[in-house]
Amino acid sequence: MTEHFNTIIIGAGLSGIGAACHHRRECPDRNFVVLEARGQMGGTWDLFRYPGIRSDSDMHTLGYDFKPWTDGKAIADGPAILDYIKETAAEFGIENHIRYDQKVTAMDWKSEEACWHLTLTSANSETFLMKANFIISAAGYYNYDEGHNPHFEGRDDFGGDIIHPQHWPENYDVSGKTIVVIGSGATAVTLVPNLAETAQHVTMLQRSPTWIASRPDTDKVADIFRKILPEKLAYKLTRAKNIAYTRFIYNSAQKKPKKMGDYLLKQIRKELGPNYNVEKHFTPSYNPWDQRLCLVPNGDLFQAMKAGKAAVVTDHIDRFVEGGILLKSGRTLPADMIVTATGLKVVVGGQAEISVDGEVKNLADSFGYYGLMFSDIPNMVSIFGYTNASWTMRADLISRFGCRLMNHMDATGLDTVTPRAPEGLTARPFVDFEAGYIMRVVEQLPKQGDRDPWQNRQDYKFDKVALMKSAIENEGLVFSSSKKHVSALESVA
């Protein structure tokens, strides 16, 4: 017999566990299950095991809006974040609702039943079916099986290990090694100072620089709040403070990019001294926040550089050679091992095939309803967080909106909601973001329109009103009831 749930949540990572908690709190009368393709919860924070794995934003905003982050470190390491996810799941009784090693490979909406038919594949390749009236997809936006691995000429000629951070070997020893880390994003700037603690030397090899900001890994104001205020109130105030600060920094960068860039470069010059070539190695060709700003807690990258344990080289790769990497400039970087911090491989919809009444849908042909539902795809909310702030801030809002939507349908006797895009929408990229991992797949992503509710604004203040306070029924959503539809047909007959 095929199991049938009111709600299926896909993914047991940070977003999926959060969605399940919101569901328990706000939709107590709806049964649900969480489907996780891997063998354990945690998503990103369980998968990535490379040295120094940490958050790239503060935990008072990366944490859930309903679950205070109480650790002293605001910029937390991966294991601490994983513990937080597990603690939250235990506190809200989510663990017994999770089915592990169950990957959703196909989803077909059946209009006459007003439900999804899901095809699942288990760890031993067994295939089976499950039904759901509503889906919350928290499957993540990247391929868990493989990272982005560009072609490097001469790769097989290199005499040492080549490792992608997404597949870091357990207990791998870098002691005494000369290492080249290819990349300049969040993973690279995290890896370099951590590897440098035991390696002989680490070089960060970049084609072009990334904007980098240094900040403490603790929050003094949060520490004060925790001492004098109740836990939940202290967290709420710290979270509000950090959201306001993040919005201020982002908006300042948008309005006065040169001023923001000059400020960031000034801080780096203070760290590395007047003789360091900041223009070459730390001055990007794009404006701050056109791509995500890289966070360096306590200036650890700069500390490793000043200690002579790390260096930054800006050049292009000609080929790998036995003893390292030959650059286009003719210089050879010696290496015992190479780390390819070359990014993620972005996927859409957790790689599941999506159909409506047997017709396969290409999400690239659809428009995003506030960036969380897709035109002509019924009863599905998809979690995609912020590119310019902490991911979880938007994940919380989307989960709560999904609960709002389901509760509205239950209260009004409706069972189907479908976003319908109007004629004449001007198609724009799903997010206004120029990061390489997005640009590589921009044509595969849904589109956003040129007006609401078809824009993906990436603006917390706007989203909070649009998703939590605006009327559920509007011109973008079409509601119906399969029961009413069947009754009408029967009366005609």
Folded structure, characterized:
The protein is of the alpha/beta class and 493 residues long. It has 2 domains: 3-145 and 345-492, FAD/NAD(P)-binding domain, CATH 3.50.50.60; 155-340, FAD/NAD(P)-binding domain (3-Layer(bba) Sandwich). 31% of the residues lie in helices and 23% in strands. The protein contains 14 helices and 25 strands. The protein has helices at residues 14-26, 44-47, 59-62, 78-91, 186-196, 220-228, 231-255, 257-272, 278-281, 300-306, 391-412, 436-439, 460-468, 482-492, and strands at residues 3-10, 32-35, 98-99, 102-110, 115-122, 127-137, 161-163, 178-182, 201-206, 212-215, 294-297, 310-314, 317-321, 324-327, 332-334, 337-340, 353-356, 359-361, 368-369, 373-374, 380-382, 416-419, 428-429, 447-448, 477-480. The strands form 7 sheets. Strands 1, 2, 3, 4, 5, 6, 17, 18 and 21 form a 9-stranded mixed β-sheet that branches. A hairpin with a 3-residue loop joins strand 19 (368-369) and strand 20 (373-374). Helix 5 (186-196) packs across helix 10 and helix 6 (220-228) packs antiparallel against helix 7. The relative contact order is 0.15. Mean pLDDT is 91; it is low at 485-493.
